[in-house]
Amino acid sequence: MISRQMQAMLGQNSVIRAMFEEGERLRAEYGSDKVYDFSLGNPNVPAPPRVEQAMREVIDEEPSVMVHGYMNNAGFPDVRKELALTVSWQAEERYRADQFIMTTGAAAALNILLKTVLNPGDEVLSFKPYFSEYKNYVENYGGVLKLVATDPETFLPDLDALRAAIGEKTRALILNSPNNPSGVIYSEELLRGIQAVLAEKEREFGNCILVISDEPYRELVYDGAKVPWVPKIMPHAAVVYSYSKTLSLPGERIGWLLLPDSIPESRDIYRAAVIANRISGFVNAPSYMQRVLKRAHLFHSDFSVYARNRALLLKELPAMGYHLVKPEGAFYLLLKAPNGDDAAFAAKLKEERILTVPCTSFACPGYVRLAYCVAETTVQNALQGFRNVAGYYREQGLL
Ligand code: PLP
Fold first, then answer.
1. Domains present along the chain, CATH in parentheses
2. Which pTM does this prediction carry?
3. Gap from CA of 181 to ligand 1 centroid (Å)
4. CA-wise closest residue to 299 among 249, 226, 232, 253
């Protein structure tokens, strides 16, 4: 009864899911304030008050049949127009409403774009470490995800490895900056380097390599870090955006896909992606949230909790002897396993009721991921546990 693809999925136990279930067990046993759960990228700061105000305004002021009805599968034209104006202003480019497709979050945007461009056997590249759902999304359409090496210390892309990975089957490259799980941001110079390799390979193979810039963490940056606008540097780049993290609305499932004109065949890709949105069963992005966004998209959640958590972890963990990769954005941090065994390190932390994700699942063995989108007290109260585990490794001469 069950398809081969889904049979295979049943066989794979999601590490994040397993950690979540372990968290439930520990919370039931010790109480939730004694469990320090850094396993999930679920924002813990509320949506900005403007979002809830906009929700009320939409209900009070807009016609119900319109708010809750079907619309063009690309989304409400007036909402897309408003977003096109904002993005044009922010990116200092000129975009139109008919280049945007409203989507059921970034996940749907990625899926409909991959459905639009992939034939079975086509290859999609992404850099390590990566958001592990990419593999599932690519395989949904018969594609093959190939992971490209990054510098082992900085997790920044290795251009020679990229050059070597591109072949005639390469159809797309998914970029994710600020990155989940490393928190690194790709600089303009680095993006120019990637673009030079892509252009060289496009000439060699006579095809277009579509860049898919997945940016759900675009505004979530620290210390004034800048996230370059990818299509300015890469003419064949589409942008995927989501309000899951910036407006703390992951369950509401709202985001967009932007297809700039500089992508070859962009109009046909756009029309096909709108059809893919429909026939994938999304039909259109949630109508109510589109109406809300028109009023509230210029706001974002209060990121100061994440900034304080990050500052505390960056101060305390290295002082205990741990090695970490300093994140510039998102709300994740990679912490090196003292003996290189991420599963054993995560298990040791779990003895202190600290839940993390071993990064083998993100193609980054030897590290665990901390999602610090948690209450400040969770970070403060977890520090003693981190200290105890550091002491354990130090006794063994591993730290
Ligand atoms: N891309 C990355 C890198 C993510 O981290 C996530 C969610 O965590 C997504 C895409 C999916 O986001 P959405 O909730 O908008 O579907």
1. 4-47+302-395 (3.90.1150.10), 49-296 (3.40.640.10)
2. 0.97
3. 11
4. 249
